[in-house]
Amino acid sequence: MAAYDCLKCPGYCCSYPVIALKKKDVERLAAHFGLSVAKAQAKFTRSDHGYKRIMKRQKDKHFGKICQFFDTDARRCTVYEARPAICREFPAEKRCGYYDFLDFERRHQEDDEHVATTDSSAWK
């Protein structure tokens, strides 16, 4: 049994600077949106950090940037059924270090909604 609950997490793993995509991931997203693979690759990916395809990102108040498919208000994936393989496999263990960190911070702050930010522009 997993020692974490993704539904209570603000999306730490979705804020990774690199979410590498395989061709199959782009094909899945293309089918989900009714696009050609070429259009989906151009619209949803970019080359960076030595990878041919990584997920494009959007601004986020907690982490600075986050996956373009993450709903920043509801804090949920908007393409869950079509999400990339790397997202399907995460965290690949029974424990999630981010969830442990979140749980610790919420207990320490005595606030079940607290989100420790990693966006340095939000620090004042």
What this model shows, in words?
This protein is elongated. It has helices spanning 23-33, 37-44, 85-89, 97-109, and strands at residues 45-48, 51-55, 57-60, 64-67, 70-71, 76-77. The mean pLDDT is 88. The protein is α+β, with helices and mostly antiparallel strands.
As laid out across the biggest beta sheet, the strand order is 1-2
Number of domain units: 1
Give the DSSP E fraction (strand runs of 2 or more residues): 15-25%
Biggest sheet, open or closed, and with what strands and sense?
2 strands, antiparallel
Using only C-alpha atoms, the radius of gyration works out to 15 Å
**Helix and strand succession?**
HHEEEEEEHH
User: Tally the helices: what do you get?
Assistant: 4
Shape from CA axes? Answer: elongated
Decide which structural class fits the backbone.
Answer: alpha+beta
Number of strands: 6
Q: Are there runs of 5+ residues with pLDDT below 50, and where?
A: none
Level of helix content?
Answer: 25-40%
Intertermini distance:
39 Å
Q: Mean pLDDT, as a whole number? A: 88
Features:
6 strands, alpha+beta, elongated, 124 residues
Question: Brief overview, please?
Answer:
By secondary structure, the chain is of the alpha+beta class.
Helices and strands in order:
Elements (H helix, E strand, L loop, with lengths): L22 H11 L3 H8 E4 L2 E5 L1 E4 L3 E4 L2 E2 L4 E2 L7 H5 L7 H13 L15
Antiparallel strand pairs: 1-2, 3-4, 5-6
